[in-house]
């Protein structure tokens, strides 16, 4: 992505992450590069098994014990994260710099402790604030995420699923982290709650200078809430760029097909299609396009090399670079007959 942005908060430079398994080294993330600037929201999209959570876990210092960043650098505000020990990470990064909103709030809430007690614990580890000041700040955050301030002393089970998710957002915001990693933050919620939580996530931008990586399999959610998008397939980022441009000018077959597979509330009559097959598990080095076996437009070359991420318009000097890894990127719109199949009109994305 862009090298021209003002301040880099998160940077992946040619990152490969592998898990050691009985079958060999499973490559969950393959040569991924991107940059996220201050106050930017990036949507990381892909089907199950594409490597999204692995990337998130690498950022929050929580890779499974058999997982390792085998090459490349992950930088947070210039500081390399990939070799930090858990102690260093807890001390310097967790909560106060990078916070995590998991898929299911109960994963990070302690069911046996009042929410306020959990906030005080985090506050005491990372700040010098007295307890009443910590609680004051937490009440204010409850207000921001739309929960009654009086309920900070509730136990997690006393909240509905949507309220729990908002409580975890309040906890995530508590130490004013610069970066929030939100893993399917609304998946466990009903539609009304999803809307509310998304509204609050959107509102965070106005409240503070926060960047976010939002992980989801729902491409339309990203078009509604994020500035940038990166599409992953079997560990490879196949297309990345500003949401508006990727929405209107997708250049990778996976993006095009994924876009057709999800309902878009602006085009309720659009017929949905299905992408055949599943993202393959990749063992060892991935030196081919991982989507080739599922791609209706694949040619021999696609199986023989990993296409490099190339800019869509080489001349254009854009704020957000639009990069695509497909040997047929220049002809794909024609091949996919996009003019007849894609949604038209309106001002989509952000
Ligand atoms: N601890 C592990 N050991 C071995 N393989 C793993 C491990 N964790 C994940 N994987 C594999 O790594 C690949 C990427 O998984 P990951 O969970 O990152 O995908 P994902 O896109 O987040 O999927 P989901 O949307 O289902 O959470 C998959 O093939 C998965 O089976």
Automatic annotation (TrEMBL):
Compartments in which it is found: Cell membrane
Keywords tagged on the record: ATP-binding, Cell membrane, Membrane, Nucleotide-binding, Transport
Primary location recorded for the protein, binned into one broad class: membrane
GO MF annotation list: ATP binding; ATP hydrolysis activity
One GO term describing the cellular component: plasma membrane
Domain ABC transporter stretches: 10-259
GO BP field: peptide transport
Xref: InterPro entries: AAA+_ATPase, ABC_Ni/Peptide_Import, ABC_transporter-like_ATP-bd, ABC_transporter-like_CS, Oligopep_ABC_C, P-loop_NTPase
Topology in the lipid bilayer: Peripheral membrane protein
PANTHER family, sorted: DIPEPTIDE TRANSPORT ATP-BINDING PROTEIN DPPD (PTHR43297:SF2), OLIGOPEPTIDE TRANSPORT ATP-BINDING PROTEIN APPD (PTHR43297)
Name of the protein in its database record: ABC transporter ATP-binding protein
Organism (species): Natronomonas salsuginis
């Amino acid at each position: 992505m862009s090298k021209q942005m003002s301040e880099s908060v998160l940077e992946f430079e040619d990152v490969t992450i592998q898990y050691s398994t009985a079958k060999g080294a499973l490559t969950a993330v393959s040569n991924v590069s991107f940059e996220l600037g201050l106050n930017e929201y990036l949507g990381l999209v892909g089907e199950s098994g594409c490597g999204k959570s692995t990337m998130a876990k690498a950022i929050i210092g929580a890779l499974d014990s058999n997982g390792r960043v085998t090459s490349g650098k992950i930088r947070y505000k210039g500081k390399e994260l990939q070799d930090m020990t858990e102690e260093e990470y807890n001390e310097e990064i967790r909560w106060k710099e990078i916070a995590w909103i998991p898929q299911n709030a109960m994963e990070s809430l302690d069911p046996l402790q009042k929410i306020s007690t959990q906030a005080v614990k985090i506050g005491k580890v990372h700040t010098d604030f007295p307890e009443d000041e910590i609680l004051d700040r937490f009440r204010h955050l409850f207000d921001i995420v739309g929960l009654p301030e009086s309920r900070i002393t509730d136990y997690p089970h006393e909240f509905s699923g949507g309220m729990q998710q908002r409580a975890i957002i309040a906890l995530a915001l508590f130490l004013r982290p610069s970066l929030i990693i939100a893993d399917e933050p609304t998946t466990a919620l009903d539609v009304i709650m999803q809307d509310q939580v998304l509204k609050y996530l959107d509102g965070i931008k106005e409240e503070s200078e926060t960047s976010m990586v939002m992980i989801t399999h729902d491409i339309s959610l990203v078009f509604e809430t994020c500035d940038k998008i990166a599409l992953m397939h079997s560990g490879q980022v196949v297309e990345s760029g500003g949401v508006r441009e990727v929405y209107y000018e997708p250049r990778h077959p996976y993006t095009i097909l994924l876009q057709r597979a999800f309902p878009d509330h602006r085009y309720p009559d659009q017929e949905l299609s299905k992408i055949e097959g599943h993202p393959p598990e990749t063992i060892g080095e991935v030196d081919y396009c991982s989507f080739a076996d599922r791609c209706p437009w694949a040619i021999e070359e696609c199986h023989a090399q990993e296409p490099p991420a190339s800019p869509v318009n080489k001349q254009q000097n854009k704020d957000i670079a639009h990069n695509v890894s497909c040997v047929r990127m220049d002809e794909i719109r024609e091949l996919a007959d996009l003019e007849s199949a894609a949604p038209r009109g309106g001002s989509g994305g952000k």
